[in-house]
Specification:
This protein is about 60% helix and about 0% strand. The protein is mostly helical. It folds into two domains: about 50 residues, no CATH class; about 110 residues, Up-down Bundle (AhpD-like).
Length: about 190
Amino acid sequence: MRLASPRIRPIAPEEWNDEVKDALAPIGSAGAMPALNIFRTLANHPKLAKRWMVFANHILGKNTLPAREREIVILRIGWLCRAEYEWAQHVVIGKREGLTDDEIRRIGVGADAPGWSELDRALLRATDELWNDAMVTDGTWKELAQHLNSQQLMDVVFTVGQYNLVSMALNSFGVQLDPGLPRFPAGVDG
């Protein structure tokens, strides 16, 4: 973790008032699912959380990208941002969506790692380009467009942007890993 302790205290679900419960309702009632540290931290700002949840739910649940490809993009931007919390949560989700341990390892290497399909390479390259220059190059766009429709192309950009933002928040707020989540692989300067 980039910070050893939280800068913003995560609020336990039993301390959530009605406004917080309403804002975080899209993740389920306080007792219905584990209150992840990201949501416990967002409980400090329910108005922001309520509005952000609408967009976040589109990106994670209504995205037009296939789930596996969405997770490649999310894991790559989490890696680039050195956002261990984001990475760890999406290692779990990525495996559930069909990513292998080897593919997850190669996401850290990027598009130049051997074994990627054309689409996977283009997704990784697009993520790197957006992170480095806030734009997908013409060449990468053309590669993506051979496999994705216009809505999917838009969702690539918005997925990278959403998880770049989330990574900034997680790193800056010092959101700590939830119990049982994997750590960055050895050698990653977190």
